[in-house]
Amino acid sequence: MAEGYDTELKLFIDGEWIGAEGRDTHKVVNPATGETLGELPLATPADLDRALDAAQRGFKIWRATSADQKAAVLYGAAQLLRERTDKIARIATLEEGKTLPEARGELMMAINLFEFYAAEAKRIYGRVLVRPSGTLSRVMKEPVGPVAAFCPWNFPIGNPGRKLGAAIGAGCSIIIKPPEEAPGSAIEVLKSLLDAGLPKEVASMVFGVPDMVSRHLIASPVTRKVSFTGSVPVGKHLAKLAAESMMRTTMELGGHGPVLVFDDADVERTLDMIVPHKFRNAGQVCVSPTRFYVQEGIYDRFVKSFTERTEKLTMGDGLVAGINMGPMANPRRPDAIEAFVQDAVKVGARVATGGERGGGSSDGGFFFRPTVLADVPLEARIMNEEPFGPVALMRPFKTFDEAIEQANRLPYGLAAYCFTENGRRALLLGDAIESGMVGINTVGIGGADSPFGGVKDSGHGSEDGPEGLEACLVTKAIHQA
Is there a single domain that holds both residue 71 and residue 179? Predict the structure, then answer.
């Protein structure tokens, strides 16, 4: 095991940490070096059945637990995460590749969510309806039941944190499947909850062949809710499975974030924000700014300055101080980005910088240089398919209407960004863009108290904020005479 990868790779089911004995395993690899970090056990169907049984029992326990006790567990877990920050952040960097400061920031996201949901657990209000004397009509909010949650590898601390926090705050039990490629961080998040007093039956953590695990859990009558973060095709597949039993779903799917930069924007301030935001986590972020539409009057200046700043980024092992961008998370990603870039160049795009593999501190890592493509034709695959990598795509536009048309052109609708100093235009942009989240003169579109989710093919439902808790609740009307 690599130095600093201080976690045991095990399943957690009904209070037991379960190792690899008699099970298939998955090799967990450091994307900066190609080094093997450990062997992760994969759940069998019998393991999943045991987790479902525990979730059924855990739901009965947890829904009857007071709001104060639920809050105490979440507050306690948040404090433990603070105390364990250095350990958990290092685990995340080793297994996912992002820089250590980014991993610490992601951990703070989980801490903030636990604290927010701890407070929200005490504010699950219903209402009393106006009725004649002698009768009573109440509208109540109740936990939906056992939740099956599935997380991707790009935020191995934050995504498990948001799914565990919402379900536990609402009074649900949960079976969570974090990513097999970056499991250690999620294990440590669950340990914080258990160490803070979460009953062992309330949360199970399983790993396995994704299609087998998802089909097994969704087919069970025990499961009452699915929460998924990941790609559009997989989200649609899981939604179809869930529809067989009318199971409730929250789907946070892919994006292809448009960025509209108008000629009255503060260009330097915009670049200060948008360049680091583009290349954080090597662009492997569902809300990453990707399609840059820049008004003609400032287009050349913007591309030149964006490129100059990109070329100053330092790429390498995320554990090393001063590194701005780590490797991509797995060997599939450089292959995909290389194919996208080659196709774009073939149809007429210009490589302003990057466009090739390498640049890391080790030949064994999965590195792809921060890339800027200018004058990218609309027919390029990368202008239509989510790239999920360190590539910024540049195109000029003339008019407001043209910019809106391009922003809304694709079936994605997760995050969008706009930069203008015209207040009237800013109001119109907020109304006209089809996206679940819009940042105007800011890239700060997330927060523990703010809903996170998309529209169109980018999914439905929200995580975070009161809406994230609401997604784990059902409404009941009780009429009494």
Answer: yes
Task: State both tokens at 165.
Answer: 């926090």
Structure tokens at 421: 């100093």
Domain residue limits at 329? 257-448
Alpha carbon 140 to its chain centroid, in Å, reads 30
Give CA angle at 215 (210, 217), nearest 5°.
95
Give the amino acid at 10.
Answer: K
| pLDDT-based confidence at residue 364 (cuts at 50, 70, 90) | confident
69-96 mean pLDDT: 98
Binning the chain into helix, strand and coil, the percentages to the nearest 5 are 40, 20, 40
Residue 27: other Cβ atoms inside 10 A: 11
> Helical H runs in 312-399?
332-346
CB count in 10 Å sphere of residue 223: 21
* 268 shares a domain with 217: no
Token couple for 57: 């029992």
The predicted-structure confidence for 430-451, as pLDDT tens digits, reads as follows: 999 999 999 999 999 999 999 9
One domain, residues 41 and 97:
yes
Q: What is the pLDDT of residues 190-238, one digit of tens each?
A: 999 999 999 999 999 999 999 999 999 999 999 999 999 999 999 999 9
Beta pairing class for 11-13 and 248-252 = unpaired
Q: How many domains does the chain have?
A: 2
Reported as type and span, the H/E element at residue 108 is helix 100-120
Run of H or E residues at 268: helix 267-279
Interstrand relation of 36-41 and 25-29 (parallel, antiparallel or unpaired)? antiparallel
User: Do 338 and 200 lie in a common domain?
Assistant: no
Averaged over 313-337, what is the pLDDT?
Answer: 95
Active site residues: 252, 286
